[in-house]
Amino acid sequence: MGKVTGFLEIDRQVGKYQPASDRIRHFREFTIPMTDGEVKKQAARCMDCGIPFCHGPTGCPVHNQIPDWNDLVYNDNWDEAIRNLHSTNNFPEFTGRICPAPCEEACTLNLEDVPVSIKTVEQAIADKAYEKGFIIPQPAASKTGKKVAVIGSGPAGMAAAQQLGRAGHEVHVYERESRAGGLLRYGIPDFKMEKHFIDRRVSQMEGEGVTFFYGVNVGIDKPVQELLDTYDAVLYCGGAETPRPAGIPGADLEGVHDAMNYLVQQNRRVGRESIESVAWPSDSIVASGRHVVVVGGGDTASDCVGTAFRQGAVKVTQLDIRPQPPEKEDKLSVWPYWATKMRTSSSQAEGADREFQVATLEFIGENGVLTHVKCCEVDEARKPIAGTEFYIKADLAFIAIGFSGPFETSVVKELGDALEMRADRRGNRSLAADDKDYRTSVDKLFTAGDIRRGQSLVVWAIREGRQAAQAIDVALMGASVLPR
């Protein structure tokens, strides 16, 4: 390691945020970048563990070689650092911004609550690589003559397409929306990741020979069977986008919306697109001057909170049915795994009122318009406690309790019973395929990402896309030089 005693001498630091009063006035990213010198110091804190849990199965899904590129950054070798990072992760500028960083939870220094700032260093490597011109198209030296179609241009589809293109295949990506990125573009707000980062990668991939077809909703505008007849392989990366049904009375009132209708619409505004979406149709939803209630405690709910503040909401209340977690976890019982503990997102820190161990009983309105949300406290089994009911004033409410599986109106509907589906104990549906060959029950059709594993992290989608690309390459060529 470049500095063996770095973790003893240097305090943990991460990029600071603009003050909440400033950042809620815009939709741009608000993290203040660290200087190269500061990033090098943070990289120097990596302590050369005997077993680096950060990039094992407990830490990084794509198995980033974190100690290696920390050392390269400390030694000012940014060129080799991005090569190393790209060997496992096609899009580190995405994950460096929006991944919750399970690698930092698994860091040995997290036993003392001061893990290496891995996510900060990862983002810095990717941004420095673009700044220095290290990231350029890498077209295949020779072509295989095989053609592969990828349905969906989210992180799984993009990662697979890039890997397959570099293996020498002719790759065509079909995207139902007008731009690439999937929910990476249309679901995640710009204040968490600006979308020119996606555009930059698309340009690189086009330089490598990947062709994007926009505004094509496969299974509706174009039969999937046509793709199966035309291409040597088809990879379906449609995501898990069906909102989980809440079953809350009054959800049909004016003012109550699924979270994704709201987030997609605002992202389209920021991207200077029409708010009309192929998959998320909705009348205009704006939180300006309103009392907003967000049902759910996850990342999507937090994104609704931050978006509402930026639109000028008067008050935002977030309801979480789970009990308030402890401020600090018991390290010896959970490390190096992801711990359940009190976490406050940047959006929540902007002024949200958070209610824990609360159930949403009913949306209440007058003349068909939402006016209040009826709630109550729940016990450890999430059962309502009698006599604890209360009301929250609301004229806008968002349901953000997760996703139950893929849309079943296009490819899934067209293929019908020929396409095997599976359901978990909660009733969430996904395409049946294992994580070895990623084959579905339909010949020549592969699948990867959230549509196969259920809703998950962007970093898991990238891993599945890379692995599916390798599996397709093996299926077409008998062997592959692509990594898993």
Distance between the termini: 27 Å
What fraction, in percent, of the residue positions are helical? 25-40%
| Rg, nearest Å | 23 Å
Unreliable residue stretches: none
Side by side, the strands of the main sheet go 5-4-3-6-19
Computed structural class? alpha/beta
Number of strands: 19
- Mean pLDDT, nearest integer? 96
User: What oligomeric assembly is this protein in?
Assistant: single chain
Which percent band covers the strand fraction? 15-25%
SS element count, helices: 18
Biggest sheet record? 5 strands, parallel
Q: What form results from the Cα inertia axes? A: globular
Write the layout of secondary structure elements.
Elements: H1 6-9, E1 16-17, H2 20-23, E2 31-32, H3 36-44, H4 66-74, H5 78-86, H6 92-98, H7 102-106, H8 118-131, E3 147-151, H9 155-166, E4 170-175, H10 183-186, H11 196-207, E5 211-214, H12 224-230, E6 233-236, E7 242-243, E8 256-258, H13 259-270, E9 291-295, H14 299-311, E10 315-320, H15 331-334, E11 353-356, E12 358-366, E13 369-377, E14 390-393, E15 396-399, E16 403-405, H16 411-415, E17 421-423, E18 429-431, E19 445-447, H17 450-453, H18 458-477
Parallel strand pairs: 3-4, 3-6, 4-5, 6-19, 8-15, 9-10, 9-15, 10-11
Antiparallel strand pairs: 1-2, 7-16, 12-13, 13-14, 17-18
